[in-house]
Amino acid sequence: xxKPIIIDTDLGIDDVVAITAALFSEExxxxxxxxxxxxxxxxxTTRNAVDLLTFLGKDTPVARGVGVPLVSKPKTASHxxxxxxxxxxxxxxxxxxxxxxxxxxxxxxxxxxxHSPEPVTLVAIGPLTNIALLLKTFPETLDHIxxxxxxxxxxxxxxxxPVAEFNIFADPHAAKIxxxxxxxxxxxxxxVTALTSxxxxxxxxxxxxxxxxxxxxxMLHYYKHAYSDGKITIHDxxxxxxxxxxxxxDVKRANVNVVTEGDAAGCTITHFTDDGNVSxxxxxxxxxxxxxxxxxxxxxx
Length: 301
Prior knowledge:
Layout lengths: L2 E7 L3 H11 L4 E8 L6 H15 L5 E3 L13 H4 L23 H10 L5 E6 L3 H9 L7 E7 L14 H5 L1 H8 L5 E4 L1 H4 L4 E2 H7 L3 H14 L7 E2 L4 H8 L4 E10 L9 E5 L5 E7 L1 H13 L3
Parallel strand pairs: 1-2, 1-4, 2-3, 4-5, 5-6, 6-11
Antiparallel strand pairs: 7-8, 9-10, 9-11
């Protein structure tokens, strides 16, 4: 049986790759996609989600979530993903507006989770605003969540500040709520997402992998301007590959404390302990990751 998942996303370029991989995975059943402000504003992240699903011919429902952080000022990564979130790429097909739910993301999350016959895995690949609000507003959903697999944080370093990764930095207060919750969390942080970066040659190979491969090639071709060393980091894909190809990753149990204020806001202080509620990804099979990226698009027409 496929694993039921819900993807919460600030849909930018690496989100596109991750969501496409999930939608065509033989192991995963994507029940819902919820959007959050992050890489770009909520209008664009929601539009991108509907456009992507239309392009891929999928009928997964989309629910619009929260566009601003719980406390801090909004931050975006439009300098990396472009003003719309998907570089210079434009979806040409008329969007299937029927995919967009009338429910807001928090209510949609709650309804899908509590009515699911089996526990649901939450895959969070943007700021954790929606997830924090879900856990605080509807704590009963905890009994129906298998785990939270998220892209965010780092054991060491950062990409928004010297000590903070973007998704956590964008809403540190939400991140603290999530990490402090008594639930199993898989943290795919910069330690592993930077390690599994792909090369320009890998991106070129996608161009001949069908229309989905061509789409991703064009987006990544834009995206690589942010990576001067020629190593292109598809951060969010690590969450999907963790679920479908766990043998690619090395993990260590930990507790994670999120700093919410001051110059270190967004820092994920990681204490390794066998009693921790977090499985932190700390290593990966880089060659295997790159090979599997190409494999994803071989079966998509």
